[in-house]
Design goal:
Layout: H1 3-18, E1 25-28, H2 39-45, E2 51-54, E3 57-59, E4 62-63, E5 70-73, E6 79-81, E7 85-87, E8 100-102, E9 105-106, E10 111-113, E11 123-125, E12 128-130, E13 138-141, E14 146-148, E15 151-153, E16 162-164, E17 171-173, E18 176-178, E19 183-188, E20 195-197, E21 200-202, E22 207-212, E23 220-223, E24 226-228, E25 234-235, E26 245-246, E27 253-257, E28 260-264, E29 269-270, E30 288-289, E31 296-297, E32 309-310, E33 322-325, E34 328-330, E35 333-339, E36 347-351, E37 366-369, E38 373-383, E39 386-399, E40 410-413, E41 416-418, E42 421-427, E43 435-439, E44 454-457, E45 461-471, E46 474-487, E47 496-499, E48 503-506, E49 511-512, E50 517-527, E51 532-541, E52 550-559, E53 563-571, E54 581-582, E55 584-588, E56 603-605, E57 609-612, H3 619-622, E58 630-645, E59 661-666, E60 677-690, E61 698-703, E62 706-712, E63 719-723, E64 734-741, E65 750-757, H4 762-765, E66 769-770, E67 774-780, E68 786-793, E69 796-798, E70 813-817, E71 828-838, E72 846-849, E73 852-855, E74 868-872, E75 883-887, E76 894-905, ...
Parallel strand pairs: 1-2, 2-5, 3-6, 4-7, 5-8, 6-9, 7-10, 8-11, 9-12, 10-13, 11-14, 12-15, 13-16, 14-17, 15-18, 16-19, 17-20, 18-21, 19-22, 20-23, 21-24, 22-25, 23-26, 24-29, 34-39, 41-46, 49-57, 78-84, 85-94, 86-95
Antiparallel strand pairs: 27-28, 27-32, 30-31, 33-35, 35-37, 36-38, 38-39, 40-42, 42-44, 43-45, 45-46, 47-50, 48-50, 50-53, 51-52, 51-55, 54-57, 55-56, 58-67, 58-68, 59-65, 60-64, 60-66, 60-67, 61-62, 61-65, 63-64, 68-76, 69-76, 70-75, 71-74, 71-76, 72-73, 72-75, 77-79, 79-82, 80-81, 80-83, 83-84, 85-87, ...
Length: 1204
């Protein structure tokens, strides 16, 4: 038997033996009104096997002192624990075996340790750990723990957000570890046999996983995880790698990828993996080698694991989850339960009252609660890999029904026959009835007061029947006209009812989730001569009560002989999730109340209809997990927003642009005012009718000559939004919007955007139509009024047609709520909405704002446009809660895209600035490098720093190095057009003489510049070694991995044995030893290594040095002073015979400082004159086109001279 399964079964057995027969549920609410106001009080009162349910609130520390206690919060967004949790209680060596911690936000790292008591089989799930500060994070030191479905983020501890130590058989699954300073988690040498699967490990600064002192200990299995943008994927931090780590599954897994099914071993997804996938099975052809001798992933994933659908056998334990609808109401309350478990369960056990009795084994059952009360529901799911349970406490709330008058109803049998005809009437009224009054021929006389009477009709004819029911709250009557038909004796049936047409949904191709469905029964036919009355017809759905109870019935009042009619019924069943099929069966005269010549031909079924979400409706409402057009960017600034959408001639239909599409914007298209600062530039690239294999376009996108995309848009550099109809002939023809931040690539003098199929293959990758693209520019300008800018992004396909799409105008509406800022309505002078839509117009679409239709048939574009409707919303603006609606009005349809709201305020007088600043560090040994940060308010435009040692700076946020000991007073003076202010901090910087060693490690040069995609060399130098050098173990880190990376290391000739991190990297270690004693006592300016650094993208990064070991010839440690360095990556190379690359000093997109020395002078004009041909051949022309004619010429030199 699998060891892990054995342990789980053993633990469950222990639970059964230890847990008392009568388990209690305790309630905690910090506002009162429950059993306790603190969690600790509830723990103190609880017994083994009890459940503590915590309602919304903020709570203090608690310790667990009894076994098998479940502590369940109402949700991590509602319950916060602000102090430490000890499992078990530390002071008493308590037993906390089997503790379950669930559904809460925890801001202080919990302490889960068996060395302070007894604890094993601890489960932590559905919790949020945010902002933990301990250096080792969550401490997990117990046997058989499970850590699942949690989020661990923003931890500031320098080692890890979670530490697994002395914990055997740990399961870490379905969690997200993100934005932590250290590693996501550390696996220590005392932890064995850890399974890590289905986790998102994203943007952890130090590493994804740290293995610490793991030599020859245990076996770890790590598979189906996403490793994205971490410092390194994994590291040993200089210790020894474990003897064996599986970086892929140990058993084959059945999975589906891009619509094809495979079985094989599966590894992890790595964001920096660039291998090929020749057979398109989603597994890379080239193994991924982990750093620090940690092993190899032989089966790396080509996409994140969520893009693989898993089925069949495999080592995946299911995770139980479910929803229900409704969750409250009056008794009797029928509830539909929906299984949402993951991991492919094969069996389901529902306990609707949590009384230990299994009530259903269906996957999606319904259950009727007949008595008032709060009901706890338990779902246990299982497969070959194991089982899991989800318990929702007090999930179903059933109320006593309010008193109300009864509702009359009844049935009768038979309703036709020869005289004398005896009919049995059955009361079917709803509510409490105290008296009955039957009138069998509707003549106003009460014929019976029994509940279920019989009556004999002696004479032929057609009779109407009326029942009146009464109780203390009122009465109600039900009249059924021409309900009883009495014929002469000896009469025989001469008519036959049948369905000669089809049973079909509207529209015909699908049944829709999250809404009611219309069913049409065509051609209900009466074959014969007599007119038939009160013909009942019912429709049944295959997924409701197994098709045995009708979902709707109606009555055909009368149908003449040899006539037919079409009937429309409504299936009211709300199916939350798509998947599977539904078959409708219609039955005419289901109770055989009408005499027919053939009673066997009264029913007909539809074909099996797929259950789908309706993509023509607003996907924020009608798709599970779908989104409205939500706010993605907000700006509050003096300045404005510009946009420019390409004309409809830029539209390219499928396959018609294989040689590429080029879109250009001139300076006049986006006229950024002089003196402005570009805040953000967004490129909106929209497409439609995509039929690329796999469901995502594969394209090469180039903006101003820079490749911003080369491959699958879903895994690329932009934010991708998609929608598709999801049913019918064009079910999978995708519409999309991909948004790129091109701020660093934008030029105010003009821009170009080129789209080509990936790899130049139009046959494979040209199967998509391209909308015209849009550029949006947000800029600051002190001369303009204050603006609040909301930018919302999504893609929502809309279409209106009841018959073709099953939509009403209200349903075919996309909503755009504007969030993130409050609006001061009284000071607003103007509010403009820019509502972008593809294929909108002419005379198409209604615009809604804050619930009002404010424009009808408003978009005036065409099927080839993606331009906006511009609407003045000034009179409709609220302080918060503003929402636009884009409503389709035609079956041709439209594609709702980005929505932009710009709020303009009245002009206010500029305020004088108020100076303030911070610095770090403010004390230390010489030489002391200090970073100063301006925190002034009032929008200063100039800065003057006096550092107190005779040096000064005019930068906003300068750095300065103090080389002499002393206390230094720092003064910052700031100015704007309204005035000036200064901030003086006396003796703010305290600099001491360096104690101990006088060795300083520094970079030479201290500041470097390198163009994109080129490299430069930087020396790591020691100032001197008074007692010689025996060896070192140093680290070098770049603080922005997007800007540059270290691609090579060259050691000095005396370094005969070396070791370093895998390259390239942005945080590396280097080790070497001076075997021949080449670095003597008193050696100065010793080059320890030469780093080759490659520029990746424009920007600046800081270089820092870390010391793990630095030893003299005697073996004594050296404690050096450490100086930082910087590297700037530029778009340009220096001109011939120049040291620095050209610079744009005023931010207007023109690089007037040709020599790169920080100032514009006649020297730059001379450099331009001598290098005109070289500039034209090697530089972007738009950067040096001073006269704006698109080329390099002598008139540019003249214009430059005029600028001086």
């Amino acid at each position: 038997m699998n060891k892990r399964i054995f342990i789980i079964l053993f633990s469950l057995l222990c639970t059964v033996l230890i847990t008392p027969a009568e388990a209690n549920t305790w309630y905690v609410d910090d506002d009162g009104g429950a059993d306790f106001t603190s969690i600790q009080s509830a723990v103190n009162a609880a017994s083994s096997g009890d459940t503590i349910y915590i309602r919304a609130g903020t709570y203090e520390a608690f310790e667990v002192s009894i076994p098998f206690l479940s502590i369940i919060g109402e949700g991590s967004d509602l319950v916060t624990v602000n102090d430490r949790i000890d499992i078990p209680q530390t002071a008493t060596s308590a037993n906390a075996t089997g503790t379950v911690l669930e559904g809460m936000k925890i801001t202080t790292e919990p302490n889960i340790r068996s060395d302070t008591g007894t604890a094993s089989d601890v489960i932590i799930r559905d919790c949020l750990f945010d902002g933990l500060t301990s250096s080792t994070g969550i401490k997990m030191q117990v046997e058989n723990p499970t850590f699942e479905h949690n989020i661990v983020s923003n931890s500031t501890g320098k080692y890890a957000a979670m530490s697994i130590k002395s914990s055997n058989n740990t399961i870490i699954s379905n969690n997200t570890f993100t934005a932590n300073i250290g590693a996501a988690f550390t696996l220590y040498d005392t932890g064995r046999n850890t399974i890590v699967t289905r986790n998102n490990i994203i943007s952890n600064a130090y590493a994804g996983i740290e293995f610490y002192a793991n030599a020859a200990i245990g076996v770890n299995t790590i598979y189906l995880n996403n490793f994205i943008d971490n410092g390194v994927i994994a590291t040993t931090s200089g210790t020894t790698a474990p003897s064996l780590t599986y970086w892929n599954s140990t058993e084959p897994i059945a999975y589906t990828y891009n619509g094809q099914t495979y079985t094989g071993y599966m590894g992890n997804y790595y964001s920096d993996y660039n291998g090929t996938d020749e057979n398109n099975d989603g597994i890379g052809d080239i193994p991924y080698v982990l750093p620090d001798s940690l092993g190899t992933d032989n089966y790396p994933l080509m996409q994140s694991y969520e893009n693989y659908n898993f089925g069949g056998s495999g080592p995946v334990i299911p995770v139980s989850a479910f929803t229900a609808s409704p969750t409250s109401g009056d008794a009797p309350l029928t509830v539909q339960f929906t299984d949402e478990s993951t991991g492919s369960p094969t069996s389901w056990a529902w306990d609707f009252e949590n009384d230990g009795i299994i009530d259903s084994t269906n996957q999606n059952p319904s259950f009727t609660y007949t008595s008032a009360g709060n009901y706890t529901v338990n779902l246990t799911v299982a497969n070959a890999g194991g089982s899991d349970s989800e318990v929702k406490t007090d999930y179903i709330v059933v109320n006593e029904p309010l008193p109300e008058p009864p509702v009359a109803d009844f049935t009768a049998t038979p309703t036709s026959g020869d005289a004398p005809l005896t009919v049995n009437f059955t009361d079917a009224s709803n509510g409490t009835v105290s008296s009955y009054a039957w009138d069998f021929d509707n003549d106003g006389n009460v014929d019976s007061e029994d509940e279920n009477p019989s009556y004999t009709y002696e004479t032929e004819g057609t009779y109407s029947v009326n029942l009146t029911v009464t109780n203390e709250d009122g009465s109600d009557s039900e009249l059924k006209t021409d309900y009883i038909t009495v014929t002469q004796a000896g009469q025989v049936a001469t008519n036959d009812l049948s369905i000669s047409g089809i049973v079909n949904t509207v529209p015909a191709s699908a049944v829709f989730a999250r809404e009611t469905n219309t069913v049409k029964v065509l051609n209900v036919k009466n074959t014969g001569t007599a007119t038939l009355t009160n013909i009942s017809i019912a429709v049944y759905a295959s997924d409701v009560s197994s098709g045995t109870v009708p979902v709707d019935t109606t009555t055909i009042a009368s149908l003449a002989g040899d006539s037919k009619t079409t009937v429309t019924l409504i299936d009211p069943t709300i199916r939350d999730l798509e998947g599977g099929t539904v078959t409708y069966t219609a039955v005419v005269d289901p109770d055989n109340l009408i005499a027919e010549t053939d009673e066997t031909n009264n029913n007909k079924s539809s074909s099996a209809k797929p259950l789908r979400y309706n993509g023509y409706k607003g996907k924020g409402i009608y798709w599970e997990g779908g989104s409205n057009i939500t706010t993605k960017h907000t700006f509050d600034l003096q300045g404005n927003l510009l946009y420019s959408t390409q004309p409809d001639s830029a539209y390219k239909s499928v396959g018609a642009w294989g040689s590429g599409r080029t879109e250009t914007w001139t300076a006049s298209d986006l006229p950024v005012p002089s003196g402005s600062t570009i805040e953000k530039v967004f490129l909106y690239f929209a497409y439609n009718w995509d039929q690329t294999a796999g469901g995502y376009p594969w394209l090469n996108l180039s903006f101003n000559g820079n490749i911003i995309e080369n491959g699958n848009l879903s895994t690329g550099n932009g934010n991708l939004y998609r929608d598709w109809s999801n049913f019918g002939a064009y079910a999978d023809y995708e519409y999309g919007l991909c948004v790129y931040d091109v701020t660093d690539r934008f030029s105010s003098s003009g821009n170009s955007f080129v789209t080509t199929p990936y790899d130049g293959d139009n046959t494979l990758y040209g199967k998509v139509a391209l909308y015209p693209s849009t550029l949006v520019v947000v800029y600051r300008n002190a001369n303009e009024t204050r603006k609040q800018i909301f930018i919302n992004e999504e893609c929502d396909e809309l279409g209106l047609s009841a018959s073709s799409y099953g939509t009403t105008s209200e349903e075919a509406t996309a909503y755009a709520p504007f969030t993130g800022m409050s609006i001061d309505v009284e000071k607003v002078t103007n509010a403009m909405l820019y509502s972008f839509a593809g294929s909108a117009g002419p005379d198409e679409g209604n615009l809604l704002f804050n619930g009002n239709i404010v424009a009808t048939n408003a978009w005036q574009g065409s099927s080839n446009t993606a331009s906006p409707l511009v609407f003045d919303a000034t009179n409709y603006i609220n302080a918060t809660g503003n929402e636009a609606g884009i409503q389709s009005t035609t079956s041709g349809g439209m594609d709702a895209l980005q929505q932009i709201l710009v709020i303009e305020y009245e002009e206010s007088a500029p305020a004088e600035p108020v100076a303030d600043f911070t610095a770090t560090p403010t004390s230390g040994d010489t030489p002391l490098a200090v970073n100063f940060t301006d925190t002034s308010t009032g929008s200063p435009t100039s800065w003057f720093w006096d550092f107190g040692d005779g040096a000064n700076s005019t930068e906003q946020n300068p750095s300065h190095t103090y080389t002499s000991a002393g206390n230094y007073t720092v003064n910052l003076t700031v100015e704007n057009e309204a005035g000036s202010d200064f901030e003086l901090k006396s003796s703010y910087i305290e600099v001491s003489e360096a104690s101990g060693s006088t060795v300083t490690l520094y970079f030479d040069p201290e500041s470097s510049s390198v163009p994109e995609n080129e490299s430069t060399e930087i020396n790591l130098v020691a100032s001197n070694f008074p007692a010689g050098l025996s060896g070192y173990n140093l680290t070098v880190t770049l603080d922005d991995p997007n800007v540059a990376e270290i691609v090579d290391i060259e050691y000095p000739s005396w370094a005969l044995i070396t070791e370093n991190s895998t390259l390239p990297g942005t945080s590396i270690y280097m080790k070497t030893v001076d075997l021949e004693d080449s670095v003597k006592e008193g050696a100065a300016d010793v080059v320890l290594a030469t780093l080759k650094v490659s520029g990746k993208e424009k920007g600046s990064a800081n270089l820092s040095i870390g010391v793990k070991r630095l030893e003299e010839d005697s073996g004594d440690s050296i404690e050096p002073a450490l100086l930082a360095g910087t590297i700037e990556v530029t778009l340009l190379s220096p001109l011939p015979d120049q040291e620095y690359a050209p610079r744009d000093l005023d931010g207007d997109g023109l690089y007037e400082d040709l020599t790169g020395n920080g100032e514009f002078s006649f020297v730059d004009i001379v450099a331009y004159f001598h290098n005109m041909d070289w500039i034209e051949e090697n530089m972007p022309v738009e950067y040096f086109d001073f006269n704006g004619n698109g080329r390099i010429d002598f008139d540019d030199v003249v214009d430059m001279f005029a600028m001086i």
